[in-house]
Amino acid sequence: MRTMPRPEQDNWKPVEVARLLALVETERRYYQELFAALPVPAAVLDDQVALVAVNREFRRRFNLEYQELGRLRLPDLLPSPILDEAAARIIDGRETRAEASVEVGLREPRTYRVALQRTQGWQDGDTSEILLTVEETTAVDAPAAPAVPAPLTAWTLDPQAEAFLWVCPECEQRLGIPEGAWQSVSVWAETRVHPADRERYLGFYRETLLRDGHGVLEYRLYDGGAGPHRVREFVTRGGDGRFHGITLDTTTDERAHRRDRERAKREALERLSGRLAHVANNLLMIISGYSEELMEDLTEEDPRRTDVEEIIRASARLAGLTTQLTGFARPSPPAAGSFSWQQVIPLLQPGAPPDDSGWLIEGSAPSLTQFVQEIRRASKAFCPPGEAPAVSLVESAEPGYVDIQITLPGLTPQAADTLFEPFSGPREGPDPPLGAAAYISPLETAGMAVDLDPAEAIIVIRAQARRSGHSAVAEPEPDASDPAPSGPTVLLVEDEDGIRSLIEKALTRAGYQVFSAPWAEEALSLAQKLEKPAELLISDIVMPGAGGREVAEQLRARWPALRVLFISGHHDDSVLQQQIVSGRAAGVTLLLRKPFTLNELLSSVETLLGRQRAAGAGAP
User: Fold this and answer.
1) Which residue has the higher pLDDT, 334 or 219?
2) pLDDT band at residue 572 under the 50/70/90 scheme
3) How confident is the model at residue 469, as a pLDDT?
4) DSSP 126-169
5) Which sign does the torsion angle of CA 577, 335, 408, 217 carry?
6) Are residues 171 and 195 in the same domain?
7) How confident is the model at residue 321 (pLDDT cuts 50, 70, 90)?
8) What is the mean pLDDT of the chain?
9) Could you tell me if 600 and 515 lie in one domain?
10) Radius of gyration of the chain, Cα coordinates, nearest whole angstrom
């Protein structure tokens, strides 16, 4: 490279320097994108063999997170004295390239061929770095499954004639497009490029590349299958004046990124919903409970009864919304297993022709059915008149999977942004329903990945499937438990003063002897002072310090016949709910979710102690 004389450098204007820096930055980003998209694991090491940069395939192969890069060195991932010696020879300048075979693992050893190449540092030309590539060469006794080819192909283009001169012979196997389809830029744009992307595609090849000599383009590509693929093309002008390019299918990566973004958004909403519902449930308990108290003190002729009744109705409506919020924050485990597509398609797509494909899908049929019903309801806000979402099933490009596709005619970007948010659909009745958001977590828990592509206005649900065999899900058998004698003594533990006072008053009025405490430690201390064992513990689950489960365990060690009524505004209780219907807790433990009425509280208490009395009456 020619060194510019100092006077010539001094004559440069700031705008010219800025243009030069912009050009250098563009070139840097171009090669970074190309490095990231390489289908083989690749990494850049510094002179201490610490990881400086890795591509996506390297992160996937070694299960790395971004924050780990600055802390890991080559021996942490591929411990081998031979490899360490090879790296040392390159760092010392004795060699510029080396290869080594490395075996990793004891129980299931894997063998890798590692190539090391000395390169000039990108940021600082005076330093050097090591480019590392990894290829697995593990030998297995059984025949290996056919390798899935990398979803990319290379080609050469004549920029003047706009004709493809050469394309990788494996292009059909890699991208699903036969070699004969690569004719010219204009034919490719007409037959393979999505109509909405054609103008941008032609502008890239007829203007951008001719001006800059290289660039990166993303567009949607048709391969003759069920739908378009998203591809990214890296193009540069070679010394022969021709354009040399790589077309990379990024559909799978983009779906994964969308799902990750949507999952992070949903998890944040779930956490916020859980906290809001917990606070709201406690306040609703106080509002509704004292409203019931006030109603009992008012005569039938008192005009204030109408106002109090309105407060109770509003509380009931808000209680319904908070119940949905807590269900969204901590959904119950879905009923999962194998189900027949032939049986479920009439529920998903009324009027669909009979299906004889024989697909058996792994997942949750109830959650899928409810999800599709909610999508149909929400689509009324954006679907054109006379149109509705259509449900279909296609075999996925990923072996052993199918894609359940829901097309959404008329979907706008604004509707796509809120489609999976709680309470975002049209109102039916006095309050909006929770919507499709309630069923995404259950679907994914059951192994069905949900992806919304706003550009294509389609939802894709990917699930494992097979064409034969069936596995049923066994229902757990509830275990009986030995009941204990009844009694009117109740120990109440609740950290919210208003709720504790309300429950204590209601139970005392009903004839129970109540001892109350605001938290676990005081309740355990109070239990030691009681003259006789308590027959029932009523406790909040989530409290400062020890929680309700810990209180119940310690008191049951002291009083084995103790009945327990848990009250909670949280839905993080799927394990407890399972224990209630089976195992030692069956019949002696109940869960009452806030907000509840005083009648529901008394009914739960009578259920627990009533079972106890009935068993005691029959005992010898």
Assistant:
1) 219
2) low
3) 46
4) TSEEEEEEEEE----SSPPPPPPPPSEEEEEEETTTTEEEEE-T
5) positive
6) yes
7) confident
8) 78
9) yes
10) 33
Residue 486 has a pLDDT of 42
Whether residue 136 contacts residue 128, with contact meaning beta carbons closer than 8 Å, is answered with no
CATH number at residue 195: 3.30.450.20
Q: What pLDDT band is residue 67 in, cutting at 50, 70 and 90?
A: low
Q: Are residues 426 and 505 in the same domain?
A: no
Greater confidence (502 vs 479) lies with 502
Contact 596, 499 (CB under 8 A): no
Residues pairing with 535 in the sheet? none
Final residue belonging to a domain, choices 281, 299, 329: 329
* Same-domain status, 244 and 259: no
Asked if 500 and 518 count as a contact pair (C-beta separation under 8 A), the reply is: yes
- How far CA 49 is from CA of 68, 69, 74, 516, in Å, comes to 14, 12, 6, 64
Go through 523-539 and write b for each residue having 16 or more CB atoms within 10 A of its CB, e for each that does not.
bbebbeeeeebbbbbbb
- On whether both 278 and 342 belong to a single domain, the answer is no
208: left (phi over 0), alpha (psi -120 to 50) or beta: alpha
Q: Which two tokens stand for residue 440?
A: 């995404």
Cα separation, 285 vs 600, in Å, equals 12
- Count up the domains in the chain and report the number: 5
Residue 123 reports pLDDT greater than 70: no
Q: Full-prediction pTM beyond 0.70?
A: no
Task: Compute φ and ψ for 56, nearest 5 degrees.
Answer: -60, -40
Task: Say whether both 72 and 119 belong to one domain.
Answer: yes
Axis crossing angle, helix 365-379 with helix 437-445, rounded to the nearest 10: 150
**Of 276, 308, 329, which one is at a domain's C-terminal end?**
329
Residues 493 and 610 reside in one and the same domain: yes
Whole-angstrom CA distances from 342 to 146, 162, 358, 446 are: 31, 49, 7, 19
Looking up residue 537, the CATH number of its domain turns out to be 3.40.50.2300
Domain membership flag for residue 274: yes
Buried b (16+ CB within 10 A) or exposed e, 368-387: bebbbebbbebbeebbeeee
pLDDT at 342 over 90: no
Tell me the CA end-to-end span of the chain in Å, nearest whole number.
104
Residue type, 72: L
Q: Would 6 be classed as within a structural domain?
A: no
Of 457, 373, 474, which Cα lies nearest the Cα of 415?
Answer: 457
Residue-number span of the structural domain to which 560 is assigned = 489-618
Q: Of the spans 28-42, 135-149, 437-451, 468-482, which averages the highest pLDDT?
A: 437-451
Same domain, 233 and 204: yes
**CATH number of the domain that 379 lies in?**
3.30.565.10
